[in-house]
Amino acid sequence: MKSLRILLPALLLSAAAFAQDPGDAALLQRAQRLHDRIVSIDTHTDTALELIRDSVDMNRVQASFPRLREGRVDCCFYPIFTEQGPLDEASEQAAFEKAIGQMKAIRAYIEARPREARIALTVKDIERNKKKRHLSLVMGLENAYPIGRDLSRLQDFYDLGTRIITLCHNYDNDICDASRYPEKTWGGLSPFGKELVREMNRLGIIVDCSHASTQTLYDCLELSTAPVICSHSCVYAIKDHPRNLTDDEIRAIAAKGGVIQVTTGRWALSWLPADQVDIGTFCDHVEYIRRLVGVEYVGIGTDFDGGGGMRQLEDASRMKDITVELMRRGWTDRELELFWGGNFLRVMRAVENAKK
C-alpha cells in the first residue's frame, strides 16, 4: 500500500500529461474538420437581453458573435426571456409590450451586422447560412407569460421571427404549470394552454417544455401534432433537480420524435463543487441519454448568459472542446453530426411540415 501511495502522484501526473499529448491535437484537428461540414446548433441562450442593454461589456457576454464563431457554432437561439409576473390583464399587457420591444431591438442589432450574422426562420435558412459562412440566429420566447390569454399575440411574435417558445419559467402562468414547485395551478396545460399549443403547431413554432411540469410535458406530447423538445435540460438520474428530466420523461420525448438539449450550468449537472464540474460532467449527461433512448434524441442548449457555463466551457469559444471529449469517448463523426444539429434540424423540419 505504501508503494502504491508513492506511485499515485506519479500516475496522476502521467495521466495529466497524457491529456495534453499529441493525440489531443489530432482530435482537435479532426473536430475542426468535422465542424467545417456539419451544422452546429445551440438551442438556448439568454444573450439577446445582454446585447441590447444600454451598456454592454462584451468581455462578459458568453455567446457573443465572435465567441460563437470561435467555438464553431453555426446557429444559436436568442430567445427573449420574461420574468413571471402577476396573472392580470394589465401586467400581461405590459409584459407583452416590453417583450415585443426587446425582440424588435435584438432584431435591429442583428440586422445592423449582416456580415457577422443573419436571422434564420427555417431549416433552409440555417443550411444556406452555413454554406455562406453566416452565423444563424433564431428568435424565440422564454416564458409565454407575455402572451397572457390573448392568442392573437402569438402571431405578433411569429411575425417578428419567433420559432420557439418555452411555455413557462419557474412559476405557473396562464398557459401551464412549471416544474419548480409542488403547488400546481392547472394540473398540466390550462385550457388556454391547449389552444396555444394547437396555434403553435399551426404557425410552425416549436413547443419547448424546459421548465414545465411533468404533466405539462405529457399534455404537450399528447396534444402536439409535431415533436416537442426541451431546449435546456439535464438528466434527473444524475442530478435530482426538479428542472431535470426523469428517464420516463426522456423516453416519452424520444417516443414522439423530440429531442433533449442538454444544458451546461452546474445547477443542472452536478451537486459537486464548481471546480469539479467540467466538460466531462456535461458529456456524462449526454451519454446517459444516448444509452437510454439513442443518439438521435440528444443535443445541446447551453443557457449561456443565463446560468450556463462551467470549468472548461466558460463561454461559447470552447464549444468545439465538447466534440473533442466525445471523440475521446469513441463517438463517430455521424453521431456527432446528429448531436450537434442533425437531431434538432429533424425536429424543426417536422414542425415546419406539420404547419404545412
Number of domains: 1
CATH topology, by name, is TIM Barrel
CATH superfamily: Metal-dependent hydrolases
CA radius of gyration: 20 Å
The count of DSSP E runs of length 2 or more, i.e. the number of strands, is: 9
> What spatial form do the alpha-carbon principal axes imply?
globular
Specify the CATH class. Alpha Beta
In the predicted model, the low-confidence regions spanning at least 5 consecutive residues are 1-19
CATH architecture: Alpha-Beta Barrel
The portion of residues assigned to helices is: 40-55%
Please give a structural write-up:
This protein has helices spanning 2-19, 22-37, 47-51, 65-70, 89-111, 123-131, 152-159, 191-203, 214-223, 247-255, 266-269, 279-293, 320-328, 333-355, and strands at 41-42, 75-81, 117-119, 135-142, 162-166, 206-208, 229-233, 259-262, 298-300. The chain has 356 residues and is α/β, with parallel strands linked by helices. Helix 2 crosses helix 13. The radius of gyration is 20 Å and the shape is globular. The chain starts with a helix and ends with a helix.
